Amino acid sequence: MARYTGVYGFPESADGARRLAEALNVPCHIAELHRFPDGESLVRLPESVERAVVYRSLDRPNDKLVELTLAASVLRRQGATELCLVAPYMAYMRQDAVFRPGEPVSQTVVGDWLGRLFDRFVCVEPHLHRTHTLDEVFVGRPSICLSGAGAIAERLRRDGVAPNAVIVGPDEEAAPLVEAVAGPLGLAALVGRKERRGDRDVTVTLPADAPLAGRPVVIVDDVISSGETIFSCARAARAAGAASVRVFGVHALFDAAVAARFQSEGLGMPLSCDGVPHPSNALPLARLIADALAAPC
């Protein structure tokens, strides 16, 4: 008997929910959402299952968090005995400490909130920094942290990446992703140093002896939003003599204006994993997530 007996998705991520349900070979149900004029949400869930996967990426999270709370309440009331939240992108992970007086530790707040609703969690590249594992976020709940590296490496392998290509990350936080992409392909890897002065004021520097002259460069990062980190990294790679620059991101959060900048910077459209629905999606995650869900807690 399959561990889970159904997948629930939401309208904006219905395709991802259906792909996961197909990989698990279970039914998929898409919630109905209604927004009242004052901004309140109403959630309707068709049918009820005993052990449910709730699939929703938490980019632009505020309304989604409330709607997840409502959905979980419906499923519990209708008899669900186990709820697993699959959130390919998990929100509020960056604020894992008090950086300035008066700020919340948002990671702890949201982790406690969701931990009261769901029994298990699966996320992809959840943007953890000083927190080492998801178990520290969802205390007492089994949690699986997946990497998008395999999907990126598989695409590069399929595209016939050059053996002298260099996988580059913009900063040390990208180092695990960089190594996980480069290692299976037998490629060189390096990371830069990022100085952030504001949300859109970023400078990336690469090692002075970076061996990039005449070699193709593949920049990888977990999240692409404003694009400034990637643009600065690409400029540094070109200044070091890179023959070409290609970009991959696990989570694409950038808008059409940033996409146009990628084109104007000569980088083309980055390729992203399909956890966050986006025009740049090219790297499937359903099988990776399904395999994780099939594993014992």
Task: Offer a few descriptive terms.
297 residues; alpha/beta; Rossmann fold; 2 domains; six-stranded parallel beta sheet; 30% helix; globular
Strands of the widest sheet, in order across it, are: 2-1-5-6-7-8
> What is the CATH topology classification name of the largest domain?
Rossmann fold
Mean pLDDT: 93
Helix and strand content put the structural class at alpha/beta
Q: Tell me about the largest β-sheet.
A: 6 strands, parallel
Query: How much helical structure, as a percent, in the residues?
Result: 25-40%
**Low-confidence spans: pLDDT under 50, at least 5 residues?**
none
Order of helices and strands: EHEEEEHEHEEHEHEEEEHEHEEH
Pfam family, one: Pribosyltran
Keywords: Nucleotide biosynthesis, Transferase
EC number: 2.7.6.1
GO molecular function, one term: ribose phosphate diphosphokinase activity
What does this structure look like?
Helices cover 30% and strands 26% of the residues. The protein is of the alpha/beta class. The protein has 2 domains: 6-146, Rossmann fold, CATH 3.40.50.2020; 149-282, Rossmann fold. The strands form 4 sheets. A 6-stranded parallel beta sheet has the order 2-1-5-6-7-8, sandwiched between helices. A 6-stranded parallel beta sheet has the order 10-9-13-14-15-16, with helices on both faces. It has a two-stranded antiparallel sheet with strand order 3-4. A hairpin with a 5-residue loop joins strand 3 and strand 4 (41-44). The longest helix has 16 residues, at 62-77. It starts with 5 loop residues before the first strand and ends with a helix. The relative contact order is 0.12. Its EC number is 2.7.6.1.
